[in-house]
Each structure stands twice: as C-alpha cells, then as structure tokens.
Amino acid sequence: MQHRSPIVLAVFTAVAGLSLVAGCSGDSLKESTPNSSSGTLGTPDYSFGPTTTFMPDCSSMPSPAALSTLAGIPLADGTVIATGTCEFRGLNDQSRVVTLGLLTDPVDQTNFHDLVASVGTTTPLGDATVPGAMLGPDSTVFALVNNAIYTVQTNVTDAPVADQIPTSVAILGAWLTP
Question: pTM here?
C-alpha cells in the first residue's frame, strides 16, 4: 500500500494542474463587453439568498443586568451567535449560558419550525406568564408574538437543561412584558 502513495499523489497533482490550466484560459475574457460608453461600472447584482433576521448586536434583547437578576448569576454582554440569536455567558463561569432568539423573518421562522419538528414534538406550556408558549424537545421555551418567534434556553446551573425550564419561562415572560 505504501508504494501507491506517490502514484496517487502524482495523479492528483496532474489532475489539479490540468484543472487550473483549464480554469485560467483567457477564452472567457474575450466575451466580456464594456458596461457603458461613459466608462462607469454598473451596480453589481448581489444575490446572497433569502433575507434573514439580521442583528448587529444584542440590543433588542433584555439587558445583561435584567437577565442576571432572573438567571441568578452575573452575565456578560450578549454576543450574536447566529441568525437572530444572542448568547449571554456567565461572568464568573463561561459554561453558564442564557441563549435568546428573536426571529422576525418568515424564512427563519419556517426553518425554526422545521428544525423543531425534525427533532421531536413540542408541548404547550400552559403557563399564564407566557400565554401560548411552547416547549421544544431540547427544552427551549418559545412563543410566537407579534409576528416574531421569541426563544429562550437557560443553562445556568449544574442541573439538566430540562430542570431549568422555569428560569427560561421567567426570562421569556419578562422579555415580552412591556
């Protein structure tokens, strides 16, 4: 088997070299035409896919101080970790986390529902603090309010995340209360 390694390497190098030469041929350059007689370039047509719930920071979420009071531990400023999602880590122990999501884009909301459905079943909470709130199979508490999905998951103690659902409900209730 060891005697084949140089042969495989040589074949791979040859194929890569041919691909590079074919990809760099100047034929495609001959087909391009100037944009206009004025010499200005047109506006590029960027197509990055569907829009998403973009957040430059976590200012649309509850403050770290408010979260700290509800979670029972000091939390640092939030960090955007995904589409519409912020993570607030413990100041003294960064393994302690409160994760909040605010999904306003219909595509993001559909993706969220598809993901939750693919993982397991959701359960209505029946908690008066957050009417209509649901519990996902991963112990995420979420609610559809004013055409947005609000999600909360807490992991701030040594207990399993499922045992921390009351803290998530308290945070979601406080977040949704004006």
Answer: 0.70
